[in-house]
Amino acid sequence: MxxxxxxxxxTRQKAHKVSHSNIKTRKWQQPNLQPVRAVxxxxxxxxxxxxxxxxxxxxxxxx
Length: 63
Hints:
The chain is mainly beta. It has one domain (about 1-63): CATH 2.30.170.40. Helix content is about 10%, strand content about 45%. The strands form 2 sheets. It has a two-stranded antiparallel ribbon with strand order 1-2. Strands 3-4 form a two-stranded antiparallel ribbon. The longest helix is centred in the last third of the chain and has 6 residues, at about 50-55. The chain is elongated. The chain starts with 12 loop residues before the first strand and ends in a 7-residue tail after the last helix.
């Protein structure tokens, strides 16, 4: 899975775009992922983290 949070596994969601005439077409809602340098297993790695994980403190940022 390429576009997913490396901490919680949050991925894209399926939704409908609804027109004025009520025609529904599929669209995808992407999570708000940010590239961060984080400490994982004692090493500094570049990872993708969603903003919810960054705010809640699941991500330990590198100095």
